[in-house]
Automatic annotation (TrEMBL):
Its main location: cytoplasm. Belongs to the DszC flavin monooxygenase family. InterPro entries: Acyl-CoA_DH_C, Acyl-CoA_Oxase/DH_mid-dom, Acyl-CoA_Oxase/DH_mid-dom_sf, AcylCo_DH-like_C, AcylCoA_DH/ox_N, AcylCoA_DH/ox_N_sf, AcylCoA_DH/oxidase_NM_dom_sf, S04_starv_induced_SfnB. Residues 240-371 form the Acyl-CoA dehydrogenase C-terminal domain. GO terms for molecular function: 3-methylbutanoyl-CoA dehydrogenase activity; flavin adenine dinucleotide binding; monooxygenase activity. One of its GO terms (cellular component) is cytoplasm. Its EC number is 1.14.14.21. One of its GO terms (biological process) is L-leucine catabolic process. NCBIfam families: sulfur_SfnB. This is Dibenzothiophene monooxygenase. It is found in: Cytoplasm. Residues 143-213 form the Acyl-CoA oxidase/dehydrogenase middle domain.
Amino acid sequence: MTTTAVPVITDDARALAVARDLAADLAPGDSERDAQRRLPRAEVAALAASGLLGVTVPRAFGGADVSARTMGELMAILSEGDASVGQIPQNHYFFVQVLREAGSAAQQEFFFAEVLAGRHFGNALSERNTRTPGEYAIRFEPRAGGDVLIDGTKYYATGSPFAPWIPIYANDPDDRKVAAWVPADAPGVTVEDDWHGMGQRTTGSGTVRFEQVVIPSDWVVPVWTMFEGPEVFGAFGNYLHAGIDLGIARAALRDGKDLIRRLARPGAESTAARPAEDPLVVHEFGELALRVRTAAALLHEAGDAIDAARANLSVESAAEASLAVAAARAETDRAAVSVASDVFALIGSRATANELNLHRHWRNARTHTLHDPRRMKIQHIGNHALNDVPPPPSGLI
């Protein structure tokens, strides 16, 4: 199934440079795509063709194996260009990490070659009728001949309309969590573009139906084995989400700056020639910039903590990585939502014009930060700070 190889990025600096170039191409059309709910098929194709989707593949398999710190900044860069396009590869990188940590040598060889050829992964994780988002009821039955039958429906399947592969989460007959890679064009697979959220409108986070789909057992990976000891898999997945939120905050600050300088008028009591010279506006904009800088610092600190834990994995280093990521998630959450909202007050009522679509940043921030609530992060941070209780090794922190 492998196709012609895309350019292979070989180091961290090149990965960030390519991300910046792509983000610069994404930004001019971001508002229009959001307003029209136009799926970014060409933009995702450009992302795949850039080589960025292969940067977490291990060097032994031909990838750049970039650092976690680089990945956080890479996600922020892409999401500043277009928050929806920035979110789409999060699940791809998540499942590349599943293969790195739980895949067999043969599985790694096959799927990493697919990734380096530009054949990326969507996702089909969430279900609607289970008690929590981390529980799975989809039918998953190994057959005597070595194949597996999959039957059921998944929702919020971000990126799946664009992806050749749609990995799912399910429980095996022993109730252990597994991941299974399903070709998007396999008989019985239907991808529906029915996501109509107020924000992150073009992520393709719709429904995927699996009707009596059969795949070989070679495409099933035992996710449960990752949690038999200390792990930073969960921290890494959450960390990528923090990068998305930072990118949204940066985009709101960027567009707010432009509109304050270009469109806003001085307040009735202001003596400044223009709002950008009003001390009160300068001060408040400085507060917004500080929130973004604080969020970025915590994101980079979390990336360093993940890298340190990977280099010397222990219960203690894994806990520190999880706590650092929880802090980054909490602060990027607050920065994205508050900056995207508060910037309106510095521009005035003109900022609410639909043709400006400035509100897309708040809609994106509010939608994406509901992924796993900030209160969960603060609870674990507080319990550790006060009671010395580390976060649980659940893959969720």
